[in-house]
Amino acid sequence: MSGLILDLKSNIDFKNVPQHIAIIMDGNGRWAKKQGEDRIFGHHEGVNSVREIVEACGEIGVKYLTLYAFSTENWNRPKDEVDALMELLIATISLETPNLHKKGVKLHAIGDIKSLPQGCQNQLQESIDITANNTTVNLILALSYSSKWEITNAVKQIAENVKQGVVNPNDINANLISEHLNTKNFPDPELMIRTSGEHRISNFLLWQLAYAEFYFTETLWPDFRKNEFYQAILSYQKRERRFGLTGEQIQNN
Ligand code: IPE
Ligand code: IPE
Ligand code: MG
Questions:
Q1: Cα of 160 to ligand 1 centre, how many Å?
Q2: Domain range for residue 210?
Q3: Ligand with an atom nearest the CA of residue 142
Q4: Is residue 134 one of the residues assigned to a domain?
Q5: What is the pLDDT of residues 130-166, one digit of tens each?
Q6: pLDDT tens track for 214-224
Q7: What's residue 4's pLDDT?
Q8: Is 215 helix (H, G, I), strand (E, B) or coil?
Q9: Residue 149 and residue 116: Cα distance in Å, rounded?
């Protein structure tokens, strides 16, 4: 196994590693059901994948990793599961912070953080403060996040600024909109990975993924580990990103 990991890793072109990777970590529930366990068991196991992928980012130089951990729509799940997820979030962040800090990881959160239970908000803030000066990997947790929520808020803020006379409608452009999103301090992801065989975006980073490459895998999140992460990066590196140009234009440049 470690030989395989080494092989895949040594094939990576380190000059062309995505700066920012976004992941829809999906399939925890199905992973648990497959072994006759409760869905929450899958969420617990998913934490081990998170740890490995964050570590892999540090090893190969991915500077930003955004993980979709809880969506606005996930609030509609059964109360037991939502409560268990919030508890798991607090416990995981608290337990992992020393390790993240040691590895130079800087923690961020995007989403409607105020809608999280107070204990969760406190733990999150504590870990964000502890890791604030780190520079190795920016780990961005999307919590109570949805892209339509984020864009709606941006529109409201911009409209308010127009009303106050601070912004001229003619000055509204893509940059101004980006600056009003939760992700304003991060570059757009070059690569988006979704596990568990679902081929949809589920209200994740609609604006920011405009030109991202997508990688879909049948693997369920608790089974998604370093070697498959490296496979995703190798797949990314084989692609030609054209941004609307022709293939000839890209190759002649
Ligand atoms: C992803 O796994 C984790 C969260 C959405 C919190 P799921 O819980 O969606 O697992 P499946 O898709 O039901 O298998
Ligand atoms: C998306 O997964 C949200 C997270 C991974 C946190 P879901 O499992 O909630 O997405 P849908 O409902 O299948 O689209
Ligand atoms: Mg799911």
A1: 36
A2: 17-146+188-238
A3: 2
A4: yes
A5: 999 999 999 999 999 999 999 999 999 999 999 999 9
A6: 999 999 999 99
A7: 72
A8: strand
A9: 15
